[in-house]
Fold each of these.
Amino acid sequence: MRLIIMGPPGAGKGTQSSRIAERYGIPAIATGDIFRANVKEGTPLGQEAQRYMDAGDYVPDSVTNAMVRDRLTQDDAQDGFLLDGYPRTLAQVDELDGMLKDAGAELDAVVVLTVDAEELVTRLVKRAEQDARSDDTEDVIRHRQDVYREQTAPLIDVYAERGLLVTVDGMGAVDDVSARVRSALDDVKP
Ligand code: AMP
């Protein structure tokens, strides 16, 4: 299966991704996690990405695209993958299309988790207390929601037009959301 999971910050993408990835035996590739690991290790990529992440802005497409292209050529991603947090801009959609074309592969589905705006802020404030992520302060949380609305939400229409969209209600208990995702994906044939 070649899947994308989308949704605003706080929608529960990370939690659901690991469950989906385990079920299909595919790697969950989260660009935010890769960036954070690079920041922690102080690599040149991390140094480049950090200032954008701390401000709640997107890391430039050129940097992000190169990183994903490299990741998708690794062995474990040859038979399938779940992308979490990529693509996030229309330019990244084009770039991913190119990567898949080069590999002779196609996407099977794009899962979109929907969650009320108020619930998103509540969840992110809670995560800020638990994880101490440097981009989970209130101002940055709000800014990240705006950036998502402006730059990433339009991607939903693009994938809807391609007939790839699987919309799942992301409200409520984690296990309930997982069950919804599972049954929605049961209808998707790889
Ligand atoms: P996330 O963990 O998915 O919320 O991502 C955390 C941060 O990493 C984002 O706010 C961006 O600064 C950066 N990031 C992650 N994925 C992307 C992407 N596809 N394009 C640009 N920036 C990204």
Note: The chain has a mean pLDDT of 94.
Amino acid sequence: MKIAIGSDHGGYTIKEAIKNYFCDKSISFKDFGTNSNDSANYVEFAFKVANAIAAGEYDKGVLCCGTGIGVSIAANKMKGIRAALCSCEFCAEMSRRHNDANILCLGGRTINSDKAIKLTEIFIQTSFEAGRHFYRIQDIKKIEEKIFK
Ligand code: RB5
């Protein structure tokens, strides 16, 4: 599995912690920035990660900002992206099982690094259940076809 990861300054600390987890577990990833705690625009990094996933270059993404809200709003503007803002284990699991989310969004000012790593681990280890949920995702894709002509 190849993971794309990015953050603004608000999510920088948990992004670095998640990267350490990926290195420990030999999980392949690319960091799309930002590269410090200096103020940065979350839209830039959300776009880079979402674009790489929409293009099929990476399997899943992790995006972090202060709350996770900005990156989730921005990433979800892109066709084929299902970005899920999660702050608990249950939501991280269900975002995969029911929503087939392809980007996990996290808030560096709402959860600590240990929780961010735990939610990331759940997110990348959980499969989509398909079944009735498959048809709901298909309905979302039909809306995308109308919007992105
Ligand atoms: C940056 O201060 C903050 O607005 C950003 O990280 C994020 O929380 C936006 O949704």
Note: Residues 2-147 form a domain with the Ribose 5-phosphate Isomerase B; Chain: A, fold (CATH 3.40.1400.10).
